[in-house]
Specification:
Helix content is 35%, strand content 13%. With 194 residues, it is of the alpha/beta class. Strands 1-2-3-4-5 form a five-stranded parallel sheet, covered by helices on one side.
Length: 194
């Protein structure tokens, strides 16, 4: 990377901290921070329940979690507010739900048709708000004051320009019917089983 320090080092599988070598892993992270090789240490989680298990023994500086219009568990669980109050940096990912929220009706794979009622509400809300899916997704996470950063992926310069342009959108209150806890939908790791 040709740098002397990185901003953050996050464990991709933080539940390994609860294993027999968990304390050793955490001590290694703390030593990297003490040596100023990293500014912040923490973990990337898949569900807020992971924080329930980890928080009593490990105090992160930074957390990365999925957060989007459909998957609002990090906020509804109360964890977003707890992290924010404890000055823990919050980065959110999967803001487009792996691109599913950006797809037009005909482009969405048939295995997601079981949530057609949700997609209809989503499309109707977008139309009523006069927002594109990209504007809505970005506006939702960027208008959340407790979120420090949003992680997005792009395939081209033109996509990056679209993201930057759409990031200025403002999103009014979302209907609660768009939020869902169905892990078959909100966890992309389960999509192969659909």
């Amino acid at each position: 990377l040709n740098v002397t320090q990185v901003h953050a080092l996050m464990l991709h599988r933080p539940m390994q901290l609860l294993s027999s070598i968990g304390e050793d892993i955490w001590e290694a992270l703390l030593s990297f921070k003490k040596k100023k090789l990293v500014k912040k240490i923490g973990f990337s989680i898949y569900a807020p329940e992971e924080l329930d298990q980890l928080s009593s023994n490990f105090k992160p500086d930074i957390i990365q979690a999925p957060y989007n219009i459909i998957d609002q568990r990090i906020k509804s669980s109360g964890w977003m507010e707890k992290l924010h109050k404890n000055n823990i940096e919050i980065h959110v990912r999967s803001i487009f739900l792996q691109g599913l929220l950006l797809m037009e009706r005909g482009a969405r794979p048939a295995k997601f048709n079981q949530w057609n009622v949700l997609w209809q509400k989503w499309e109707q809300w977008l139309q009523n708000q006069q927002l594109t899916p990209l504007e809505a997704c970005l506006g939702f996470v960027l208008n959340e004051s407790m979120v420090n950063r949003a992680v997005v992926g792009v395939d081209s310069l033109s996509q990056l320009k679209e993201v930057i342009k759409a990031s200025h959108a403002r999103v009014s209150e979302l209907p609660s019917a768009l939020s869902m806890a169905d892990k078959n939908l909100i966890n992309p790791a389960n999509w192969d089983k659909l």
